[in-house]
Here is the input.
Amino acid sequence: MRLRIKEAVDSYVSMAALARQIGVSKSTVSQWVHGQIKNLQADHLYKLAQVTGYSARWLLEGIEPKMQSELTGSQVGSSTTEQVSQEIGERKVCDVSVAELVKYIQAAG
Here is the structure.
């Protein structure tokens, strides 16, 4: 996951600008990139995806499509916690379970 986060961060104008958009410090983003933070919060992962255009699911699990622009109409907002849990299980990556991420995305609407 660290390399996927690094790719998303590197695609943005600057680490400082990205940190401001997400609502975290530049140091926090740097720690994500270098794998020093093991508990990336679901809301931060979701905001990282929103701001950079990468798919939150790709950032979390490496599951295609990589970019939000590549999502089809049936993929956008169609996943429920149950569907995602059945599909890839209740694995936790950096202390963010897929179910937690889906709940956050649904709540953010």
The first strand starts at residue 92 and ends at 93. Residues 74-93 have pLDDT under 50 and may be disordered. The first helix runs from residue 2 to 10. Residues 74 and 80 are 12 Å apart (CA to CA).
